[in-house]
Amino acid sequence: MVIAAPAGSTSVREGFNRTSPLPVWLRVTLVLFAAIALFDDLRALESVDQAPATMVVIAVQMILGYVSLALIAWRPGIASALLLVPLALALFTHNYGFTLICAVIVTIATVSMLPRVMTIIYSVILATWTITAVVVESTTDVLWIMGTPLVTGVLIGVALRFFVIQHRENKARLRSIEAAHQQLREQERLELARDLHDVVAHELTLVTMQAAGSHRQNDPVVLHDTISTMENAARSGLQELRTLLHILRESPGAVSRNDNSSGLTTGSLESLVDSLSASLTAAGFSVTVNTVDGFEKLPTSVRGTAARILQEASTNIIKYAPAGSTCLLSLTTDANSVMIRTENELQQSYRSDDGEFPMTSGYGLHGIQERVALLNGEVTYGPQDDRWVLDVRIPFGDA
Description:
By secondary structure, the protein is an alpha+beta fold.
């Protein structure tokens, strides 16, 4: 049968074996002090006129007292236990001076470094020893002569214990703050990466596709229109990039975790849908647009997220849909949510045997999922009947 030890006894046992947290220089100082003081007191003992047996007991008392003082450098629990022996011998030799010095220093270490239970036990033993000394010496002067230094040692130990605890708590708090700051920096980097992707990807994709198509175009009028489209796309991307940089300069590190918009000026959703539709048409797609009114009343975060989703979806259509194919941009709303749906034909050459699309980086779709998740929305996407479909629902209000 196994009997579990009480929690208090476990605490005392662990405290008894606890390693001293003192720095190396202080450990060396304690050991040197104990060694020098022991050597000096042993030499002084030669001139004391006492019986040989008493001299031996005093010498043992000195050795054990200073050894307990040196042990503070490694095991303060063992040092406090060992000190009880010279304290007991002092009651018989009536020699308290050096033992009292060792007791005060060991008391400071015990109270400041050992667990509370062990500190209480040690303090009770120390008080009992002081009362016993008063009885043995038959004078209350002993109470003041020895009690005052010991109480002072206890108070100093309590003060050191308080400062040590505060230091540990401050270090733990600092680590917590540093971890929180690191998490915020990671969040800011994620927000910035997402915003840069939103700003640059659509316009650069449009410019790239227009430039690629212009190589096969000989009509000067069409080439002029293509160049105009590329110029407008480049200017639009540059303007949004400038807006992002302006926001970063005005409010460094102020990317809000609760603000799910891109942080850029996107204008009205109707204007954005018209602009994206024009970009898709200029890229050679047949665009079907389905929108309703009333988007101005939506929260800013919802409007900003919807704008970025539409922009990312349009970018993917330009990049991956077959040239000249049909596509759909749908933006509707009901009493408590915004619905976004985009469709485009699949290009067979982009599809691998397992149905994946290796040419996609996935950053855009991951960004859409992250934005919608922050607003407690839903996202589904994938191939349906040879078409790529993206469905998004973003709740607002009390939804």
